[in-house]
Amino acid sequence: MGIAIKRVYEPATKMDGYRVLVDRLWPRGVKKEALPLDLWAKELAPSHALRTWFGHDPARWDGFRHRYASELDALGEYWRPLAERSVRHAVTLLYAARDEEHNQALALQCYLQNWLRTHGPR
């Protein structure tokens, strides 16, 4: 089915499937009971040090993706079930960042899709 990304501020739809928040911090202005969510995967968010270094600076995007992928390499127990679920069901990664082209959900989506292309589900 695939892996999509979506800002938490966009309305939920049935097409979203399994909705996973991939931010370490809860999104500003969103009540916990108001966000349709299946999982809050804080563990998949970039480390505090990496988030601070990146600072949502597009000039650091390539470096961020590389460093984040290195962090994710050690977190297979958290992301592998999502990748495997996405083979049969829709999975939507939710994020709060304003920048829709440079955020951890997009980097995670690419990481998972690359893993599925090269390894496939187990």
- Summarize the helix and strand pattern as letters: EEEHHHEH
Structural class: alpha/beta
List segments where confidence is low: pLDDT < 50 over at least 5 consecutive residues. none
The main pleated sheet reads as:
4 strands, parallel
> What gyration radius follows from the Cα positions, in whole Å?
14 Å
How many helix segments?
A: 4
Number of domains: 1
Strand order within the widest beta sheet: 1-4-2-3
Q: Roughly what is the average pLDDT, rounded to an integer?
A: 94
First-to-last CA distance: 16 Å
What quaternary form is this? Answer: single chain
Tell how many strands the DSSP assignment holds: 4
Share of β-strand residues: 5-15%
Approximately how much helix is present in the residues?
A: 25-40%
Structural shape: globular
Topology:
Blueprint: E1 2-7, E2 18-21, E3 39-40, H1 48-54, H2 61-73, H3 76-88, E4 90-95, H4 104-118
Parallel strand pairs: 1-4, 2-3, 2-4
